[in-house]
Amino acid sequence: MNAPAKPADTEGSLSGAAILRAVKAAGIEYVLSVPDLHTAKGLLAPISTDKDFKLVRVCKEDETLGIAAGLLYGDKRSLILIQYTGFLYAMNAIRGVACEQKLPMVMMIGLLSKEVGVAPQDSKRFGLRIVEPILDVMGIERHYIDLDADIAAITPAIERAYAQSRPVAFLIGRRPS
Q1: 161 located within any domain
Q2: Mean pLDDT of the chain
Q3: I need a labelling partner for 78 at 20 to 30 A (CA). Which of 34, 36, 148, 154 fits?
Q4: What are the φ/ψ torsions at residue 5 (nearest 5 degrees)?
Q5: Within a domain: 160
Q6: What is the mean pLDDT of residues 76-80?
């Protein structure tokens, strides 16, 4: 589950519609997001017009954790949609809410400006290289989503997060179409 991400396929594709079907299949109703350039066209735009989702736009990434925790008390499932820079910014909230409180926070993290065909840990960008090790140290299950074939991991991982009351992260390696 937490094996290092494999280098991206330079010829593959990633379907935003298929990702959203997998998220819906796991019972996600709310999407909490700061505008995210990496997933804006393939995920955020379709979410904003989808009647099955309630989109909550926030100003800062750490706000998503508190809102997601509140929704849990109402028995509502949510997805946090941010890019890796916001993930790094929200570290303290992730630690305190998701990890220490053992809450099923579902994070979809866009790897903005990740080089095609390069695994995150091999990126020239320092911030991209440290995302996976940070998730590992925090004990957060993670999945690298870079091709349509990777989408099959989404629904069962979300179900497991809620069954075990643990956070999970999906690292979106390429821009979904």
Answers
A1: yes
A2: 94
A3: 148
A4: -65, 140
A5: yes
A6: 98
